Amino acid sequence: MSTPFTPAEVRHAVELLASRSLIRLVTEIDDNGAIPPRRLAGTLPDLSTHQLRSASDTARAHGLVRIAPGSGLELTEAGAELTDLYDAMARWARRHAVPAPVCEFSRRIRYVLDLLAPSLSTERADALSPLTGDGAEAGLARPRTLLIQWLADNPQVARVPEPEPVA
Q: Which 3-state string (H, E, C) describes 61-84?
């Protein structure tokens, strides 16, 4: 499967998808349903107001959540598919006890995304070979395929924003 992503697009997508606050927001909604905006701080007390606002704004801007009248922030189809992708990555990481035997879900996601990133770039197609060998990385072929498909279906996530013009 070809990877039509530039190194900058890969970096942007990985940084966005590996954001702890974004992971916490979408997985909380996936696990427990819509969250009224006024209840975000009580639902995710480990995140600062700034982190909550940033995660919510980012998730809405990239089509992962929407505000449903009467219920609050809910996942879009893309957001629900992202939580499935996160689950696949976390399962692989737990099975291989990485980055540590016991660690936070978001750390596992970050670890797997960092492993997959080199194989997603058009300039690093050779990086796929360790993912298809006999070692622990071989099981990453499926999460990689899922990630590529998700990014292809949601190109706005990999799109690098244009720099603001200087006045």
A: HCCCEEEECCCEEEECHHHHHHHH
Are 3 and 36 contacting, i.e. CB atoms less than 8 angstroms apart? Answer: no
Contact residues for 25 (Cβ-Cβ < 8 A; gap 6+): 40, 44, 52, 55, 56, 59, 65, 73
pLDDT of the residue at 163 = 73
Residue range 33-59: average pLDDT? 96
Question: How does pLDDT run across 38-49, given as a tens digit for each residue?
Answer: 999 999 999 999
Cβ pair 156, 62 in contact under 8 A: yes
For the cut 80, the answer to whether the pLDDT of residue 134 exceeds it is no
Which residues lie below 8 Å from residue 140, measured CB to CB, with a gap of 6+?
92, 112, 115, 116, 131
**Are residues 13 and 153 in contact, defined by beta-carbon separation less than 8 angstroms?**
no
* Exposure string over 9-42, b if 16+ CB within 10 A, otherwise e: bbbbbbebbbbbbbbbbbbbbbeeebbeeeebee
Answer yes or no: are the C-beta atoms of 92 and 56 closer than 8 Å: no
The residue length of the chain stands at 167
Mean pLDDT estimate for the chain: 90
pLDDT at 129 over 50: no
